[in-house]
Structure formats: C-alpha cells, structure tokens
Amino acid sequence: MTGLPVLIAGGGIGGLALALTLNQIGVPCTVFEQVREMKPLGVGINIQPNAIRELFDLDITAADLDEVGLPAREWALVGLNGNDIYAEPRGLEAGYRWPQYAVHRGLFQMLLYAKVVERMGAGAVRMGHRVAGYRNEADGAVTVLVEAADGTRSEERGSLLIGADGLHSAVRAQMHPGQPPIHWGGAIMWRGTSPGVPIRTGASFVGLGTHRHRVVFYPI
Predict the structure, then answer these.
(1) In a domain, 17, yes or no
(2) Which pTM does this prediction carry?
(3) 13-24 and 105-120 are packed helices; what angle lies between their axes, rounded to 10 degrees?
(4) pLDDT, tens digit (0-9, with 9 covering 90-100), for 160-183
(5) Sign of the C-alpha dihedral, residues 128, 52, 202, 211?
(6) For residue 24, is it within any domain?
(7) Which of 22, 68, 120, 217 is a Cys-bridge partner for 124, taking CB atoms 3.0 to 4.6 Å apart?
(8) So what's the pLDDT on residue 100?
(9) CATH number, domain at 25?
(10) Residue 184 CA: distances (Å) to CA of 131, 180, 187, 188, 189
(11) Rounded CA gap, 217 and 219, in Å?
C-alpha cells in the first residue's frame, strides 16, 4: 500500500477539512465529489471555539473567516414580550482562547475548497465523481468504485477510504446494509437569509419562542 492515497468520498465541509488535515501531515489524498461545480449553497452555521481552534491549526486565519462571516459576541434567549430571559457572552468575550464564528455555510465550504486547491492542486478534488461502493483487498488496500457524471465507471485504489458523503452515504449503506431508513424526528425547520438591521451587540445569536414554535436568528 506504500504510496497509495487516502480516498475521501464527499467534498463537503467534513471531507475538505479532512483533506487539509491530511495534507498538513504529509499524507496524500484524493477527494471525490459528485457535483460538477462547487457552489456556495446553504445559509448560516455557527462554528464553536473548539472547531475554530482546529481551523487555526490548519492555517485558516481570522482574516479568512472574516470574509465569510463574523465573530459571534453573544447568545441571548428572549421572551415573547421581547424581554431578556438569559444572555451570555460568546467566544473571546466569554474567555475562550478562540472566537466563535457565525458564517455563511456555502461561502465557508468555498473557502475550504479554495484552500485545498491552493495547497494540493486542482486535481485533489475530482468534481463530478461519486463513490458508489468499495472493495477491501487482501493486501489491506481498498478499491473504490467511482461513477462519473457522464455515466462512466472506474476503479481507484487507496490505502484507506473515508466516507464523508452525507446523509445518503453510499459508503455507510454498504458498510451497514441492515441499517434502517432515516427516521424523521417530527420537527419542521425553515431556514433562510434576509437583509436586517444589527441588534444588541451587532453579532448576537438570539432565540425566542415556546417549546413548540421557536425562532433563532443571527447575523452572518
């Protein structure tokens, strides 16, 4: 298996962060992503200080993150009458050594993708290629079955396969064929973005509502 790359199924946030980590420690890898073109899809996510620590260790800077979001300064729970129930500082203002960031999910993924291409070359992420399955070999290597967007199929050998291919993972489905279907928990969530006027600290994560209906909003 000497010289074989680690193969990563999925070029989302997890797969790209893993690729950056492997590159940092000198392990060759290839990412297979089924979409033909990376686009900034999604809305907001909050990245907690422990995750920001890992990003900083990957030489992703606060200036990089400022391009896709902003440091969160406060978490606040507000009653239906608008009065505070509870509030606390977040990130650096809460005494952490690392900030908390509220970012646009799609732009954050594009940031990771740009870093992978910059450090590893465009060929490190095989766009338009989906991992459809795998085969463990007697020598300890793994052969990955790859489907291209044009319908062609190929095989790739690697030292290890890591499934980061999302909710409907083909890797997980093969590894755990008896796993039951995804179970809906009964909650409906609507997500979106809208222009707004900064409130409170200007970077507050605010929740309000009841145990049945809730609204959470924050600037990105």
Answers:
(1) yes
(2) 0.93
(3) 30
(4) 999 999 989 999 999 999 988 888
(5) positive
(6) yes
(7) 120
(8) 98
(9) 3.50.50.60
(10) 26, 12, 8, 10, 12
(11) 7
